[in-house]
Amino acid sequence: MPLASEKGVPALIRGSRVLDAVVASDQPLTVSDLARRLNLPKSTVHGLCGTLVDLGLLSRRNGNFLIGPHVMRWANAFLAQTDLTAEFAALWDNLAVLSNETITLSVLDGAEVVYIACRNSSSSLGITFRIGMRLPAPFTATGKSILSTMPDAQVRKLLAGHWPKPLTRRSVQNIDALIGELDECRRRGFSIDDGQTREGMYCFGTPVRDSSNQVVAGVAVSLLATRVDEHTTELAAESIQTIAHQLSMRLGADMKKLQA
């Protein structure tokens, strides 16, 4: 992205872009990797990375760069000030259902969801959810649940020109197919990720609302596909709707008004 179209301090913007690139990568990146991805001179990236390492925002390992420990202090401070994650943690501590399943809470950021809280099951799903993890909203249960609360025109505008690369052979292929899924989600009251994020994993999701009754997040439960049948689907759907309802109530949502 050309800096001419950005407002703010150029060096700070470049530094932020470096951090975003490192966070988005599954592997540590070199200066050359970053320069190619960000379309910046290697000398510029080298200087930025050196400064970010000095600040503790990046770590250097064998010529590669990873997120540094100082970032966690910011993340912890953010989470400590966020009622949403605090209430979610309090809720799962007292959870009587789905106590051994993976439960996640995420927020929408553009065309992606960002995971802000998670409790991973001891059962191997082939994926471990972690705070700060990003996934394409059209493929995830939380993303679908949040998108289902928007008008179709808004969903199309949000995803125009930004269709994500499929994560599995089951990932929804285009915007029209997604709109069809969102219609189904609205009809039944919950969303389903049927292996679209990870082969062999099913997720069921529902939106979470705040005191203004606006959707602020999505909550989902993830299970092994081999365990999913009609009974399990009903149980998972009922349980995740209960969790979302309780979490919304804790945040001050007027659920009676929504049901009217």
Look at the structure and name the CATH superfamily of the largest domain. Answer: GAF domain
User: Stretches where pLDDT falls below 50 for ≥5 residues?
Assistant: 1-5
Overall geometry:
globular
The portion of residues forming beta strands comes to 15-25%
The largest sheet is: 6 strands, antiparallel
Find the CATH topology of the largest domain: Beta-Lactamase
Sheet/helix structural class: alpha+beta
Q: Could you say how many structural domains there are in total?
A: 2
N-to-C CA distance: 46 Å
CATH C-level of the largest domain: Alpha Beta
Helix amount, in percent? Answer: 40-55%
Explain what this protein looks like in three dimensions.
The protein is α+β, with helices and mostly antiparallel strands and 260 residues long. The chain folds into 2 domains: 3-69, Winged helix-like DNA-binding domain superfamily/Winged helix DNA-binding domain (Arc Repressor Mutant, subunit A, Orthogonal Bundle); 82-259, GAF domain (Beta-Lactamase, 2-Layer Sandwich). 43% of the residues lie in helices and 19% in strands. The protein contains 10 helices and 8 strands. It has helices at residues 10-24, 31-38, 42-54, 70-80, 83-93, 141-147, 152-159, 175-188, 230-250, 255-259; strands spanning 58-61, 64-67, 102-109, 112-119, 134-136, 191-194, 201-209, 215-224. Strands 5-4-3-8-7-6 form a 6-stranded antiparallel β-sheet, with helices on both faces. A hairpin with a 2-residue loop joins strand 1 (58-61) and strand 2 (64-67). The chain is globular and about 55 Å long. Residues 1-5 have low confidence and may be disordered.
